[in-house]
């Protein structure tokens, strides 16, 4: 009880400090604030550069994807690595600790509502119709990420969600038959490899790490701008591989305590 | 950006967060956390950050709710405090 | 003008059914009737609202050559509505099924025969 009081006090103080900090922010959409207009007498603002020059630099209309995959490509690469590491960590924890305390006993009574397959036919049929639609939409999101909202993370999550839906509607084995454990960890590693590979190839061609413009002769494009655009697509595909595989592996390991049997 | 709309969504968000913290049943708590994710997605979409809203709709409201429920089913359903 | 009126009729009737679903969730006595209200009302009202949006998109449509992107938007909206036709009743069914398997008793009026318990074993 006392700990709750202290926790409440800590939360209130932290919240008050944060609100006090927000009070100093420039107001939302203020054109004269430093992030939008730049510092007086100093450099131009970064956001102005992104808004005006992104299309000239890389022929990508969606500025968010361009910033994410090109200008801040290093950051996104390590985000992908973080996702990968999280999946590996959950895999290790569930495999080593999960089997120690016997899950089979309490699991049976808790899962009473999934017993019996009498009405599963409706859910199973609908999911069999819906899963391909979700996957096609996910591929659209990945491939169209630099023209409309979307990109590798969102498309990868949707692809992973389609496999999770398959596992939820029938059972985990049906999903594992399509995407086995060996394959999804291979895909996760391949995703990171694709991303880092784009950077390394650029480095071998004499530019900086992840400087896509020099990939022009390899990608057979008209100019360095289109090379950057296509490289962004390739990088997004790598991110999508990793995120899809890791989402599904997290679900498979969490729902079965690492045994990969039965599932929810 | 419409201030009234923002304000209503923010109030709903705070209410959802408080309920998710106080409810004893962890399954309900994870459901309400999904509602919180949808509300924050709505707020971001309304403020013009469509990419972030899309991510939040896919991750925060969709997959993370499933992961929470999978965890709750494999552990205790009652909250300890 | 006429397109605006038609789409407004669709959207307002959709909102009417949304209100009905919300009132049904609040007022109905037990789990099954509430889920019924939510599932039916949600599906129909989402369809009506999205159809209204799709009709509203036709507003600036003059020639096919110049305005074909509008048709693309309409196609996307109609795809969303088809997706809702498939998924929303199924999710309602899954919810009801889970409630039935958890032995959630339906409320039955005093004096009425309860047929629900009789053949529940044959599932």
Q: Which structural traits does this protein have?
A:
heterotrimer, A: 264 residues, mainly alpha, 12 helices, 72% helix, B: 81 residues, 83% helix
Explain what you see:
The complex is a heterotrimer of chains A (264), B (81) and C (123). Chain A is mainly α. Helix content of chain A is 72%, strand content 0%. Chain A has one domain (61-109, 119-256). The longest helix of chain A is centred in the last third of the chain and has 33 residues, at 224-256. The model of chain A is unreliable at 105-115 (pLDDT under 50). Chain B has one domain (3-74). Chain B has helices at 3-22, 26-47, 50-74. Chain B starts with a helix and ends in a 7-residue tail after the last helix. The model of chain B has no long low-confidence stretch (mean pLDDT 89). Chain B is 83% helix and 0% strand. With 123 residues, chain C is mostly helical. Chains in contact: A-B, A-C. At the A-B interface, helix 8 and helix 12 of A face helix 3 of B.
Percent of residues in helices of chain C: over 70%
State the low-pLDDT regions of chain B, or none. none
Query: Major beta sheet of chain B, specifics?
Result: none
Structural class of chain B: mainly alpha
Q: How many domains of chain B, as an integer?
A: 1
Which range does the strand content of chain B fall in?
A: under 5%
Number of strands of chain B: 0
End-to-end separation of chain C in angstroms reads 55 Å
Rg of Cα set of chain B: 14 Å
Greatest interface? A-B, 30 and 20 residues
Give a quick account of the main beta sheet of chain C: strands, pairing sense, barrel closure. none
Q: Regions of chain C with pLDDT < 50 over 5+ consecutive residues?
A: none
User: Can you tell me the overall shape of chain C?
Assistant: elongated
Instruction: Write down the overall geometry of chain B.
Output: flat
Series of secondary-structure elements of chain B, N-terminal to C-terminal: HHH
Helix content of chain B: over 70%
Q: Would you report the number of β strands of chain C?
A: 0
- Report the mean per-residue pLDDT of chain B as an integer: 89
Determine the strand fraction of chain C and express it as a percent band.
under 5%
Order of helices and strands of chain C: HHH
Q: How many individual domains of chain C?
A: 1
């Amino acid at each position: 009880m006392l700990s709750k009081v202290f926790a409440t006090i800590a939360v209130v103080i932290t919240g008050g400090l944060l609100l006090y900090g927000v009070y100093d922010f420039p107001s939302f959409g203020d054109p004269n604030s430093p992030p939008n207009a730049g510092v007086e007498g100093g450099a131009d603002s970064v956001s102005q550069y992104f808004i005006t020059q992104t299309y000239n630099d890389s022929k990508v209309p969606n500025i968010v994807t361009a910033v994410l995959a090109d200008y801040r490509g290093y950051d996104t690469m390590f985000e992908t690595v973080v996702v990968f590491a999280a999946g590996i960590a959950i895999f290790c924890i569930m495999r080593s600790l999960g089997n120690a305390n016997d899950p089979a006993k309490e699991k049976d009574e808790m899962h009473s509502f999934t017993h019996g397959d009498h009405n599963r036919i409706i859910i199973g049929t609908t999911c069999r119709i819906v899963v391909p639609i979700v996957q096609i939409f996910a591929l659209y999101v990945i491939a169209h990420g630099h023209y409309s909202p979307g990109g590798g993370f969102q498309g990868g999550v949707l692809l992973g969600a389609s496999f999770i839906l398959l596992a939820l509607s029938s059972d985990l084995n049906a999903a594992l038959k399509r995407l086995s454990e060996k394959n999804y960890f291979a895909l996760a590693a391949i995703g990171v490899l694709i991303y880092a590979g784009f950077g390394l190839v650029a480095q071998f061609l004499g530019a900086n790490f992840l400087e896509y413009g020099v990939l022009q002769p390899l990608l057979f494009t008209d100019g360095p701008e289109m090379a950057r655009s296509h490289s962004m697509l390739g990088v997004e595909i790598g991110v999508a591989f990793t995120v899809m595989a890791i989402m599904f592996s997290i679900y498979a390991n969490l729902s079965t305590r690492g045994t990969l049997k039965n599932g929810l | 950006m419409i201030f009234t709309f923002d304000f209503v969504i923010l109030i709903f968000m705070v209410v959802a967060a408080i309920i998710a913290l106080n409810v004893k049943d962890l399954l309900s708590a994870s459901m309400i956390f999904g509602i919180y994710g949808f509300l924050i997605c709505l707020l971001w979409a309304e403020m013009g950050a469509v990419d972030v809203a899309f991510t939040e709709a896919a991750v925060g409201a969709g997959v993370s709710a499933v992961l929470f429920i999978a965890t709750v089913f494999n552990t205790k359903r009652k909250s300890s405090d | 003008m006429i397109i605006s009126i038609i789409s407004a009729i669709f959207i307002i009737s959709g909102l009417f059914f949304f209100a009905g679903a919300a009132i049904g969730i609040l007022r109905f006595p037990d789990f099954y009737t509430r889920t019924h209200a939510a599932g039916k009302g949600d599906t129909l009202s989402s369809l009506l609202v999205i159809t209204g949006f799709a009709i509203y998109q036709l507003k600036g449509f003059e020639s096919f050559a110049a305005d074909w992107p509008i048709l693309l938007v309409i196609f996307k909206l109609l795809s969303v509505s088809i997706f809702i036709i498939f998924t929303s009743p199924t999710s309602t069914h899954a919810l009801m099924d889970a409630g039935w398997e958890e032995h959630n008793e339906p409320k039955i009026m005093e004096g009425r025969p309860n047929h629900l318990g009789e053949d529940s074993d044959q599932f």
